[in-house]
Request: fold
Amino acid sequence: MSDLDLSDTPDSDFLGFELLLDDEDRKLVERVREFMLTHVEPVINGFWTRAEFPHELVPGLADLGIAGLQYDGPGCPGRSSLLDGMVAMEMARVDASMQTFMGVHGGLAMGSVQLCGSDEQRERWLPAMARMELIGAFGLTEPEVGSGIAGGLATTARREGDEWVLDGEKKWIGNASFADLVVIWARDEADDQVKGFVVEKGAEGMTFDVTQDKIALRVVQNAEIHLAGVRVPEANRLQGASSFEDTAKVLKVTRMGVAWQATGCARGAYEHALRYTLERQQFGQPIAGFQLVQDLLVKMLSNVVASTAMCVRVSQLQDAGLVKDEHASLAKAFTTARMRETVGWAREVLGGNGILLEHHVGRFVADAEAIYSYEGTREINTLIVGRAITGESAFV
Ligand SMILES: Cc1cc2nc3c(=O)[nH]c(=O)nc-3n(C[C@H](O)[C@H](O)[C@H](O)COP(=O)(O)OP(=O)(O)OC[C@H]3O[C@@H](n4cnc5c(N)ncnc54)[C@H](O)[C@@H]3O)c2cc1C
Reply:
């Protein structure tokens, strides 16, 4: 029997999932929580309103040592997927934009190098990325193709001697405008296969238009990337990526990160809502004492607990090397739907104050809309699970 007690975990961890972690891992989760509450929560609404990224917070994030947390490449922390997920949830519980920034850098960009790079490429880039001295971005989606990217990717790569020439357009690429390394997925004109290229900051012919007027994740700097005859050395082509199946290996890992993020977003909204209902008085008593309000609070908590349980199990499968695409897709589709429901209920119990940034819930409601759609929409993840359980592909 463990001498741990449920009171050792936060109240919103109702079934004590954190107790699945060992002491060292739990300490890291607590450090992340402390950082987010102390340094991010007090300032984030201002950055959200101004649609600015708080670059000054990056050294503090780097000190946490969480970039590429579950990768075991050179200089990487090499911790479990379960810990990686719980850290993602912890960040999103306070702010989903900062977690997206880390997910793009430490999940997608570092994951591309880790899972699709050669030993030499891992040695060259991962240690500095883990220290966050080099920040990464991941360029897959295009203006004309999102869900259908596997077959429809139009950016081209043409080999000329020891170089490749990239031409095309990317859309929605997080961190791209300030990243040191942008992973660009392009179709090799010679064999029609999708390959990955690490394009370094300042490459001639690569320009950006930062996306304006977003109503979600406003802190994240998304950009359209224009690639006009960008020359990349063969040494920067990810040597282990020879088709879209290799790109998909990265997405399988990061899709789980988004499921954890959605769970964190729902949990943060629930916590703010619970606190508010205990403080807010109507008809001479805290609104938390009304049956209809408790009904919503309990439904929110149920969503958070069910989502966490699903994420925990899929991460355990990932740690055991047993995870399949459909597992990550089920988790992403389920948790994001539960998140959307939960943030809506949180907003509801705040009444009019629910639409003010001041109480944070309004930001969670808005940010949830982006999380719901990226890394595979609910429809696409549903089709992946549907294909797995029926053996019939309903993709058209
Ligand atoms: C804030 C944000 C950040 C992002 N960051 C990145 C990033 O860093 N890097 C990157 O590469 N991409 C990024 N993306 C892109 C993201 O992955 C895409 O938005 C997503 O894959 C969906 O593509 P789409 O927006 O083009 O929608 P579409 O593919 O046009 O889909 C529109 C609608 O049609 C539905 N649909 C499409 N096909 C089918 C079908 N066969 N059956 C049923 N329904 C279907 C979809 O589910 C959706 O509801 C980001 C997006 C956002 C919003």
Remarks:
- Residues 136-242 form a domain with the Butyryl-CoA Dehydrogenase, subunit A; domain 2 fold (CATH 2.40.110.10).
- The beta strands are 136-139, 156-160, 163-174, 181-188, 194-200, 206-210, 222-233, 281-282, 285-286.
- The first strand starts at residue 136 and ends at 139.
